[in-house]
From TrEMBL:
Keywords from the named record: Iron, Iron-sulfur, Metal-binding, Pyridoxal phosphate, Transferase
Similarity comment: family membership: Belongs to the class-V pyridoxal-phosphate-dependent aminotransferase family. NifS/IscS subfamily.
The protein's name in its UniProt record: cysteine desulfurase
Residues of the Aminotransferase class V domain: 5-365
InterPro entries attached to this UniProt entry: Aminotrans_V_dom, Aminotrans_V_PyrdxlP_BS, Cysteine_dSase, PyrdxlP-dep_Trfase, PyrdxlP-dep_Trfase_major, PyrdxlP-dep_Trfase_small
Gene: iscS_1
Length: 381
């Protein structure tokens, strides 16, 4: 029996329906969407239809969707793209949290090297960020607040909607949300007109790898004052040059559409699997990180006392594919900045692993896999 895939927060297997759509577009809509001829117009029309689908999730407009290679690029464009305007207006203070994805924290670190001041708010033990602490940190020279939608290590949903409400009167502050983990899975927090910039990735939604979007919402007739990070073409309002990957974009849109249409069924299935995971692992007495009432049902971050996370992953490699959190962080073998922010003791942080599944995870296979995991980890203890 091959190892079960339980790392869906890292990336998801492509939906067969989406795969068929991608192949169809490769075969039928291969023309450049920027070309003036009829075939080019067909490609362009497909791109516009895709924009409509993605924008509708957060009640945005299609021309506010900027296609990118994924959420990492979107985060960089949102943060570094605002820097020239911030320097021009002498507003070089940014408020964020210490649990953000590295694709937010590292661009901010670069801005700090350029003279920006970055305020980072720690999480509560529940894994949530206290909204009032963010609001209290905003100053007259604050240009940006960045708060993720769902944490990629714990699955904890952040109070984005409450923060957006609190910032309604602070017109000079832009609000960015990294929604890679929760877009089209949890709608309540991010469907708010005060969110200026929102990053999305296709491959977290059973869509194709290599495509994502930055939704840059207009304020009335005013566009967000972003500057491009790359040059060489006028695509995507001049903010992201390059030939648009029509097939990937169309597959992305279909993945979003399916996630929207099937959200309740998918969530119910994931919740049932979560209950099974917790029941099966209970004998190992795991320490679960993140308040269950605010955690998406497809992810579990837990520590197993006395077992180093890297050893657990290695020992289980022939049974299940799991991780220590962000794949981007795991590559560097660094400790979890998320759990550190939550005040988790180092011994528990070092033994924490992330198990994540989705609506395509088979229940019977999962049960068998969990039995094998429990047997192996009991022997290690």
């Amino acid at each position: 029996m091959s190892a079960s895939y339980l790392d869906h927060c890292s990336t998801t297997p492509i939906d067969p329906r989406v795969q068929r759509e991608v192949v169809r577009c490769f075969q039928e809509l291969y023309a450049n969407a920027s070309s003036p001829h009829e075939l080019g117009r067909h490609s362009k029309e497909q791109v516009h239809r895709s924009r409509d689908v993605i924008a509708a999730v957060v009640s945005a407009r299609k021309h506010e969707v900027i296609f990118t290679s994924g959420a990492t690029e979107s985060n960089n464009l949102a943060i570094l793209g605002l820097a020239p305007y911030a320097q021009q207006t002498n507003k070089k203070h940014i408020v964020t949290t210490s649990i953000e994805h590295k694709s937010v924290l590292e661009p901010l670190r670069e801005l700090a090297r350029q003279g920006f001041e970055i305020t980072r708010i720690d999480a509560e033990p529940s894994g949530r960020i206290p909204v009032q602490m963010i609001v209290d940190a905003v100053r007259e020279d604050t240009i940006l607040v960045s708060l993720m939608h769902v944490n990629n290590e714990t699955g904890v949903i952040q109070p984005v909607h409450s923060l957006a409400d609190a910032l309604c009167e602070r017109k000079g502050v832009f609000l960015h949300v990294d929604a890679a983990q929760g877009f089209a899975k949890e709608a309540e927090q991010i469907d708010h007109p005060r969110i200026d910039l929102l990053s999305v990735s296709s491959h977290k939604l059973n869509g194709p790898l290599g495509v994502g979007a930055l939704i840059a919402r207009k304020r009335g007739s005013e566009v967000i004052p972003l500057s491009p990070l790359m040059f060489g073409g006028g695509q995507e309002l001049g903010l992201r040059p390059g030939t648009l990957p029509v097939a990937l974009i169309s597959g992305f849109a279909l993945a979003v559409q399916l996630a929207q249409e099937e959200r309740e069924r998918r969530s119910a299935h994931c919740q049932k699997l979560r209950e099974i995971v917790l029941e099966k692992l209970a004998i190992l007495r795991p320490i679960v990180h993140g308040a269950p009432e605010t955690t998406l049902p497809h992810v579990l971050c837990a520590s197993f006392a006395g077992l180093d996370a890297e050893r657990v992953i290695d020992e289980l490699s022939d049974i299940a594919a799991i991780s220590t959190g962000s794949a981007c962080t795991s590559i560097c073998a660094t400790s979890s900045h998320v759990l550190n922010s939550m005040g988790v003791p180092a011994s528990d942080s070092d033994s924490a692993v992330r198990i994540s599944w989705s609506h395509v995870t088979d229940q019977a296979e999962l049960i068998e896999t969990l039995d094998r995991i429990v047997f192996k980890l009991n022997r290690l203890k």
